[in-house]
Amino acid sequence: MSKEVEKMHKDYKIMLDEEFEVEFDALFDAFWTNDHPIWEECKVMNDLSEFTASPFENKTRKFNFKVKMGVPFGPSHAPVEITQTMLEDDRKNGKVICENAHKTDYPYADTFDIVHRYEFVQVDGGKSRMKFFSRQEWRKKVPFVQGALNALVNHKQGIFVKNVAKVIRKYTNEEIKNQNSRLCTKIL
């Protein structure tokens, strides 16, 4: 890893680093898109509901949804708002990097932020490498609870990336591109 990339990912934990038989931009375009089979399966596998996405404006867009919490305390579901920022959109040279900052309305959610970074890179031909990085940033110390929340967040992210990888492998590059094209036409 170059020093520049190392600095960019400082304080992040890498959760996924895999190659897929899919072009990088087709893979990026499949994510966070309602009605795309990849995203629809990811939502089901990760207990996401009521997902909405705004269009990009100045390299930023927002997602809103509810997520099942699966913990013994607090509400069973929580609303989440994600602000996605494009850090690098260089499709000509085979690279897209975005960062998703999560805000959740849940007990203790005001004490920390969860930030995910996605990196989609063209490897060669129809192959790409997808990397998923994660970090939690604590704004307030919460003794006893902090360790439990760290464990919960890491567990849920681990499940998320395993599910995402399974789903992506089910589809060919052509199937993903055809769905992207169908959905793009539907939007226009």
Automatic annotation (TrEMBL):
Source superkingdom: Eukaryota
GO BP annotations, alphabetical order: intracellular sterol transport
Keyword Glycoprotein attributed: no
One Gene Ontology cellular component: plasma membrane
Domain VASt: 11-180
Keyword Membrane: yes
Coiled-coil regions listed in the entry: none
Keywords: Membrane
Main location, first listed in the record: membrane
GO molecular function: sterol binding; sterol transfer activity
Subcellular localization(s) per the UniProt record: Membrane
InterPro entries on file: Cholesterol_transport, VASt
The protein's name in its UniProt record: VASt domain-containing protein
Species annotation: Oikopleura dioica (Tunicate)
The organism's taxonomic lineage, starting at the top: Eukaryota, Metazoa, Chordata, Tunicata, Appendicularia
